[in-house]
């Protein structure tokens, strides 16, 4: 369905690196397909050609950006990057030693500097028919200073997690926690509609933001089902890719933070990925994501240690894909694996989203025991490639994993239950027919309900509603 389009300005306070940037890229492209004129106003880092550069990342969309490169140079020189001419964005996560300190530690003067920079950018972009603001940030306040236009606030869950922390002990931990709490709540109330990505986040938005439920729309994230597809790779092709990622061009990183500090040999690949008796590939378990506390990657490593204790050398390898270089919360997963002395864990490091399709197709089961995952787009991307998933019974995944009891597409385990997680990994790795059936069901689930064009049609209807 192609519609009579509108001019949409999508805002993203951050340079492209996380899941919300992928949402902006795919949703923006699908909205253009429907006939809308989409401009992305966002942060950017580095020269054209690198993944964090906005023009490169959002290729195919009109892009206007704030370049944070100078602010990062200021940080390297020991100066405050929040006071640079173009200040770097704050973060929803509180991590030591990084330039983008947590929102709740950004004071009044730095906040005003952020808003002014974004107001100048949006004035240059020009007024749209609708502002579509991804996240609740200082950008929402910049929009409020401009001529009135209908505004959609699109929550991705991280802002809600920060509010939960503020309502816990955050007011004691952070100097500016309460004022940011008030700003985020006010931004949500100013919006004409608030989009959340799951029923779990809808309940949180009502509770934490005090929103009228009638103003909240549940719109899940989607998947490019023409790109995320089963590739039917041969065993040798899969091995070649693992050798490339792990041996020839290793990007895994330890607590030192430099990509390539974790390295493997061709013998490691043969030993853990190939059954020496049959010559067949062992099934591969794959995790993809950042090393944030709620992702529970250390828990996954400990559960995998139980898998190896039970299966010994017959255990499937576990590949950890991702972790943004130098950034982690709590225990570093590689440190946990080293301390346990567990073998068979491989750290791929951070790779571009365009390589993820191949990564999924080199694996047999996607496993991510996140607790209260805001939505879980990466699960859907794995499922679109025909890979069954292991998730927990919290957050977004229960809204698409095993929703049809007659056609299961994965496994759900209780949160923080490492023993059950280990048992399910053993079960999934040991039963090829079950994996195959659940993988087919997983692909069907995504194609029928989560294709980006279907998602864009729902968003387009929200635009038309607020405009009329």
Structure description:
This protein is α/β, with parallel strands linked by helices and 468 residues long. It folds into 2 domains: 7-222 and 451-467, Glycogen Phosphorylase B (Rossmann fold), CATH 3.40.50; 235-449, Glycogen Phosphorylase B (Rossmann fold, 3-Layer(aba) Sandwich), CATH 3.40.50.2000. Helix content is 43%, strand content 13%. It is built from 17 helices and 13 strands. The chain has helices at 19-33, 54-57, 69-76, 108-125, 138-144, 158-173, 177-190, 199-209, 235-248, 266-273, 297-311, 333-340, 356-361, 377-384, 418-430, 432-449, 452-467, and strands spanning 7-12, 37-44, 62-67, 130-134, 151-154, 193-196, 216-218, 285-289, 318-322, 345-349, 365-367, 389-392, 410-413. The protein has a 7-stranded parallel beta sheet with strand order 3-2-1-4-5-6-7, with helices on both faces. β2, α2 and β3 form a beta-alpha-beta unit. α1 (19-33) packs across α17 (452-467) and α14 (377-384) packs across α16. It is globular. The protein starts with 6 loop residues before the first strand and ends with a helix. 49% of the residues are buried. The mean pLDDT is 95.
């Amino acid at each position: 369905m192609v519609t009579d389009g509108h001019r949409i300005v999508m805002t993203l306070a951050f340079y492209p690196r996380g899941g919300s940037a992928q949402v902006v890229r795919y949703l923006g492209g699908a909205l253009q397909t429907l006939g809308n004129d989409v401009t992305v106003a966002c942060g950017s880092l580095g020269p054209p050609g690198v993944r964090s550069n906005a023009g490169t990342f959002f290729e195919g969309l009109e892009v206007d950006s704030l370049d944070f490169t100078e602010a990062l140079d200021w940080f390297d020189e020991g100066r405050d990057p929040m006071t640079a001419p173009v200040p770097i964005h704050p973060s929803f996560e509180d991590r030591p030693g990084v330039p983008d300190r947590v929102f709740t530690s950004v004071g009044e003067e730095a906040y005003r500097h952020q808003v002014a920079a974004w107001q100048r950018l949006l004035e240059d972009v020009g007024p749209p028919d609708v502002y579509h603001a991804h996240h609740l940030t200082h950008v929402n306040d910049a929009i409020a200073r401009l001529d009135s236009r209908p505004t959609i606030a699109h929550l991705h869950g991280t802002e809600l997690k920060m509010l939960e922390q503020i309502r816990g002990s955050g007011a004691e931990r952070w100097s500016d926690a309460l004022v940011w709490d008030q700003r985020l709540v006010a931004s949500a109330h100013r919006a004409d509609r608030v989009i959340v990505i799951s029923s779990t986040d809808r309940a949180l938005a009502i509770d934490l933001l005090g929103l009228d439920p009638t103003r909240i729309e549940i719109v899940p994230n989607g998947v490019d089902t023409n790109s995320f597809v089963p590739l039917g790779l041969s065993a040798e092709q899969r091995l070649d890719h693992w050798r490339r990622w792990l041996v020839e061009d290793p990007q895994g990183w330890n607590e030192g933070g430099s990509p390539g500090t974790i390295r493997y040999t061709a013998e490691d690949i043969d030993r853990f990925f190939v059954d020496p008796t049959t010559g067949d590939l062992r099934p591969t378990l794959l995790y993809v994501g950042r090393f944030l506390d709620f992702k529970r990657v250390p828990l996954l490593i400990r559960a995998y240690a139980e898998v190896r204790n039970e299966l010994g050398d017959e255990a499937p390898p576990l590949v950890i894909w991702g972790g943004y270089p130098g950034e982690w919360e709590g225990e570093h997963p590689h440190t946990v694996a080293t301390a346990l002395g567990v073998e068979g864990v491989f750290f791929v490091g951070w790779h571009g989203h365009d390589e993820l399709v191949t990564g999924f197709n080199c694996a047999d089961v996607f496993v991510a025991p996140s607790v209260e995952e805001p939505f879980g787009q990466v699960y859907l991307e794995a499922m679109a490639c025909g890979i069954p998933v292991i998730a927990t019974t919290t957050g977004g995944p229960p809204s698409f994993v095993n929703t049809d009891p007659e056609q299961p597409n994965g496994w759900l385990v209780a949160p923080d239950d490492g023993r059950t997680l280990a048992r399910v990994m053993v079960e999934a790795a040991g039963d090829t027919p079950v994996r195959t059936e659940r993988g087919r069901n997983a692909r069907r689930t995504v194609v029928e309900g989560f294709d980006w064009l279907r998602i864009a049609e729902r968003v387009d209807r929200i635009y038309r509603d607020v405009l009329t």
